Amino acid sequence: MRISTSQYFGMNVQTMDDQQSTLAQLYQQLSSGVSLATPSDNPVGAAQAVQLSMQGATLSQYASNQNTALQALQSEDGSLSSVNTVLTTINTLLVRAGDGSLNDGDRGDIATQLQGIRSQLMGLANGTDGSGNYLYAGYQASTPPFSVDASGAVQYNGDNGIQHVQVTGTRNIAIGDTGRDVFLGISPAGSSPVTAGNSSNTGSGTIGNVSVSNPTDPTNQHKYTINFTSTTTYTITDVTAATTSAPQTYAAGQAITLGGGGQNVTISGAPNAGDSFSVTPAAQSSTDVFANLDKVIAALQTSVSGAGGQANLTNALGTAMTQLHNTMNNVTSIQTSVGGREQEIEALQTVTQTNSLQTSSNLADLTQTDLTSTISKYTMTQFSLQAAQQGFSMIQKLSLFDYIGN
């Protein structure tokens, strides 16, 4: 195959043009630090870079969501710690109020202290986070969840909505709890049945706490009343099943078996005929911490006279302390849940950060210039171009006319 002079010259010029173009491209990569400026530079790499950029943006948003969720949970955690501190103070005052040496004035002072603590608890229930949103209002984050009506009773104005945040592609996490759950509810686990004496009792009978011998007995979830038909006999009414036992002989301090025998309770002192006591499952009793506080405050403000009055106060304090125990157990359970969610988010933050760094590294490998490799290519291409230019210059002189002229 014969190659004409014009073809030969054209091929050499094209080769040098290509090398100059390569040099220009390599120079741009070196000066800009970007090896993938346009999709035509590396179509497959460009597609991968788009995917990595989208993944990086998604991970960045998840990281932001995780920070938001963690801050919200930390605010609630701190608030619940304060609530527990207040409830512990209430418990201490109730124990003190049971001191038989106190007089009406002493108990009135304790009632006044409890009223102040109730206001403090109300303030915590209407607490806000760093952004001014109410912690326990549900979806109504701009409205105080609790208010006091004309009668002095506390009303819940929030809803049951629990806000969630998407912290990973497959995980939505709750970033709060409602005021109804925290201050008006109880935890099914760890709560105790509530015993109470009728406030109109005239005898000196006092009821103790429930002792559970068989936690799986279904009748433990029934409500019972113990009604004294005389000072020495009583009947047990299963309010849930609507049944009443035959009269039984009363002995102070002797265990009284309830229902199927899964639990029992003791009554001490000397009840009068017509006196009654009740045992209510925790979930069916009053779970409103504010209403329970109001009842025990009223009991402490009532003048105590005689054995009957002292017994009624003892029963009221016992009921209040059991209800308070259930509330504290509930708050602790919620705080434990909050702490677990905080730990989960912190673990996810570590994973997200690792994935973000790996994604950024992979994207950099695709789009950023490898200086060592690029400089080497630039130098080699430059040498090749110089050699081509010198060779072409020498070949241009290989003409018969040059020899004839000599």
Give a nutshell description of this structure.
With 406 residues, this protein is of the alpha+beta class. The chain has helices at 5-32, 43-97, 104-125, 179-183, 289-301, 306-367, 371-396, 400-405, and strands at 146-148, 154-156, 164-166, 172-174, 194-197, 206-207, 211-212, 224-228, 233-238, 243-244, 248-249, 255-258, 263-268, 276-280. The chain starts with a helix and ends with a helix.
Describe it.
- With 406 residues, the protein is an alpha+beta fold.
- It has 2 domains: 44-192 and 287-370, Up-down Bundle (f41 fragment of flagellin, N-terminal domain); 194-280, no CATH class.
- The protein is built from 8 helices and 14 strands.
- It has helices at 5-32, 43-97, 104-125, 179-183, 289-301, 306-367, 371-396, 400-405; strands at residues 146-148, 154-156, 164-166, 172-174, 194-197, 206-207, 211-212, 224-228, 233-238, 243-244, 248-249, 255-258, 263-268, 276-280.
- The longest helix has 62 residues, at 306-367.
- The radius of gyration is 41 Å and the shape is elongated.
- The model has no long low-confidence stretch (mean pLDDT 85).
